[in-house]
Amino acid sequence: MTAATALSTLHLDEPPLAQRARWAVSDTLTITRRNLMVWMRVPAYIAFTVIQPVMFVLMFRYVFGGAIPVQVHGGYVNFLMPGIIGQTAAFATFGTAIALATELRKGVIDRLRSMPMARSAVLAGRLVADTARMLVTILIVIGVGYAVGFRFQNGVAGAIGMVALATVFGLAICCIAAYTGLAIKDEESVQAFGMIWLFPITFLSSAFVPIKTMPGWLQAFANNQPVTYVIDTMRALALGGPIQANLLKSIACIAAILLIFAPLAVRAYKRAS
């Protein structure tokens, strides 16, 4: 058999691209189901995932709400909830970074990658599962918000748009978390690093107080950062008001995060061992 014939035979034996794509999707869904089953079988993990945003809702609603004047129909609770939901989407990514660092340290990722499955399925399955977990948490937080007085003012389409934007924003932050988890490789260090950058960027935004109440030097940062763009868009979707300008800025920021950190996460995953 000549080299050309052998190469031709090898090429013919290779599955077509469509078939490989179907296998990759199937493997990703299998890993997604595995990750969600782990989550469902540990009730304490579910509780701790949900309890923090619920505590923020109750604390800001009843402790700080009366001291923070806002010009929003429905009062401070309507101003607050889009900020809490945006923060919930961002903070949910702690689980992504910690889980990847833990599985990498324990050798789980190496074992999964040694199996006859798409190499992309491990990382993609983690991101899909954590996005689903994030969506469930967001819906629970909205339910708690409704119990304490929050109401959507802009119809069903606005409500769906707000939840969709929060979920996509959370997915973008998940890519950052995936990269840091795979690059740092230590659960405690990953958690500490997440606290260092996520807390400031969410609190120094329009999430909890009007930016005009901040010192002038801080307003410059708070007005021009991705979390503010996303939360202002979510607030407009939920309550009504101008949407286009902040929506375009939000899309640009989310796209930039995905374009930068998705490849970095993939590279860190390929190099991780």
List the main descriptive attributes of the protein structure presented here.
273 residues; 12 helices; disordered N terminus; single chain; mainly alpha
Number of helices: 12
SS strand fraction? under 5%
The percent of residues in helical segments reads: over 70%
Number of folding domains? Answer: 1
The Rg value, from CA coordinates, equals 21 Å
Which parts are unreliable, with pLDDT below 50 for 5 consecutive residues or more?
3-12
Shape: elongated
* Overall SS class: mainly alpha
Number of E-type strands: 0
Q: Please outline the major beta sheet.
A: none
Task: Walk me through what this model shows.
This protein has 273 residues and is mostly helical. The chain has one domain. Helix content is 79%, strand content 0%. It has helices spanning 3-13, 17-40, 43-64, 76-91, 94-106, 108-113, 121-147, 155-184, 187-203, 216-222, 226-239, 244-271. Helix 7 packs across helix 8 (155-184). The longest helix is centred in the middle third of the chain and has 30 residues, at 155-184.
Quickly describe the structure.
The protein has 273 residues and is mainly alpha-helical. The protein has twelve helices and no strands. Helix content is 79%, strand content 0%.
